[in-house]
Design a protein that fits this description.
Length: 499
């Protein structure tokens, strides 16, 4: 009996030992899962922190571009500067080369996707304009065209979780940033290292400011002249080899055979620079002991076989409409220097010569003058004044071909990177009839547009087209005007993360 009981106890103990083994194995598996969760998910959480930092900075870089400050080179792949800067910033932070973009990905015309060819399968998605899920603190909606959204993802490798078949964890982060107003970046026309518009340290008054070329006030529109320049007049003679002509614009342009750029410089000797002593051969001295030289830049569009300029063109015939900074630098023979800088407005639309228009109907001009700086928030109205022997064309017709001859007004600048229709915002005065006025001044109408204070600070161009009502020039009896102002009474530049 005792022996039988012993055998039963021994078998029961063996069974109990056998049942513990699966429990222990299961506990080990659970422990590995817990360790995997602790280690690999902790690692993924750390990676997500890196991803969020990368995404935040990328969104802010894109928002800065929206507000006018570039953080990268020229956009590639046909995307906007904001999209390019955001994606470029993300891939630089991840030490990955910039892949080619896929625009309108996922069927969203506002979204651009980038997929890196790295083992982690890194992707960056940039969306602008973007409508966020939240409103401003005051409850109003954000403007979608001020926002940029960035989503960054990659596969983060696991270490311990591999034993349970999980080799990667997909890590993603998202950020939305807002660029509002215009942040004025340091430009080529501001004082900085190697600034071409801040060449001189002594600034001795060596120019006769009452004798400019082509007019006594070079800040006005350049008239039909081939050259511009200044008169050197000083008691020490000129060093002709020191002369530098500099010109700049916010948009790239071509001049003097140089490639398109925002800043152009010409030094002596150059076929475009002419330095004439008055009188020859050394420019003086005159009765007051002063030396006089005429320093001119001639806008030749080509050179002949000997390197001399030919095919001289008026500046206003070859440069795009806009505001330019022109500068002339020179030194005396005793190393005193001066650089004079002034704005120049190119405005080719005084006569109707753009598009189909064949007539100058805006004889009353436009206000404020091109180049004006608007800083008063209570004085933001721009105008164009129509004059002709017949009133402006108006119609009640719904025919689009007929209505196309109505007044049309467009704006370019700020967030409006291309010409945008603002016709409905223009206020037209009542037509004034003055039968005793000159033939082309009998009927007058003033078109007014008030720039909203919500507009970003920056440069804006306005263009208006209107037809008269006699239509005696088939298909082209219309007038056209374009002018540009600097607006500095609007929203201050700001960049912020909002999501």
């Amino acid at each position: 009996m005792a022996e039988q009981l012993h055998r039963v106890k021994t078998a029961r103990a063996a069974d109990e030992r056998g049942s513990v083994i699966p429990l222990v194995a299961g506990a080990i598996v659970m422990l590995l899962v817990m360790v995997a969760l602790a280690v690999d998910l902790g690692n993924a959480h750390q990676a997500k922190g890196l991803a969020q930092s990368t995404t935040d900075s990328a969104a802010l870089a894109g928002a800065q571009a929206i507000a006018g400050v570039k953080n990268g080179g020229a956009p590639q792949g046909g995307v906007s500067q904001a999209v390019y800067d955001a994606a470029n910033w993300a891939f630089q932070n991840l030490s990955l080369p910039m892949p080619s973009p896929t625009k309108s990905c996922g069927g969203d015309p506002s979204k651009t996707c980038y997929a890196a060819a790295d083992p982690a399968g890194t992707t960056v998605e940039v969306t602008t304009p973007y409508t966020p899920s939240r409103t401003k603190p005051d409850g109003t909606a954000y403007a979608a065209n001020e926002l940029i959204h960035v989503r960054t993802c990659w596969n983060n490798q696991t270490f311990i979780a591999r034993v349970i078949g999980i080799s990667t964890v997909r890590v993603c982060s998202e950020a939305t940033a807002r660029g509002s107003g215009v942040i004025h970046a340091n430009t080529d026309m501001e004082d900085e290292t190697n600034d071409p518009f801040a060449r001189c340290s002594s600034d001795t008054d060596i120019f006769d400011t009452s004798h400019w070329f082509p007019t006594n006030n070079p800040s006005k529109d350049i008239p039909g002249k081939n050259n511009w320049g200044a008169t050197y007049l000083y008691t020490t003679n000129l060093d002709p080899s020191s002369i530098v002509f500099t010109m700049s614009s916010q948009d790239p342009f071509e001049i003097g055979g140089q490639p398109s750029a925002k800043v152009h410089e010409f030094t002596v000797p150059s076929p475009y620079i002419k330095v004439d002593p008055k009188p020859a051969p050394n420019g003086g001295p005159d009765a007051q002991g002063r030396y006089k030289w005429e320093i001119k830049f001639t806008n030749y569009t080509a050179l002949d076989g000997s390197g001399n300029g030919k095919d001289a063109k008026n500046f206003k015939d070859v440069l795009p409409n806009g505001i330019y900074a022109f500068a002339i630098y020179a030194k005396t023979s005793s190393n005193l220097c001066n650089q004079t800088t002034f704005p120049v407005v190119i405005n080719t639309s005084k006569k109707a010569k753009d598009g189909v228009c064949q007539e100058d109907l805006f004889r009353g001009g436009t206000t404020p003058a091109s180049g004006t700086q608007i800083t008063d928030p209570n004085n933001r109205t721009v105008t164009a004044t129509y004059f002709d022997e017949t009133p402006p064309f108006v119609t009640d017709s719904t025919d689009p071909n007929v209505r196309s001859h109505m007044m049309h007004f467009e704006i370019k600048g700020g967030i409006y990177t291309d010409w945008t229709d603002f016709t409905s915002s223009v206020v037209a005065s009542g037509v004034t009839n003055n039968p005793t006025a000159g033939h082309e001044y009998k009927f007058q109408q003033v078109y007014q547009y008030t720039i909203p204070t919500t507009f970003m600070n920056g440069q804006y161009s306005f263009r208006i087209q209107v037809y008269d009502s006699d239509q005696n020039k088939a298909g082209g009896d219309c007038g056209f005007a374009i002018w540009t102002v600097n607006f500095a009474a609007g929203v201050n530049g700001r960049v912020e993360l909002i999501e």
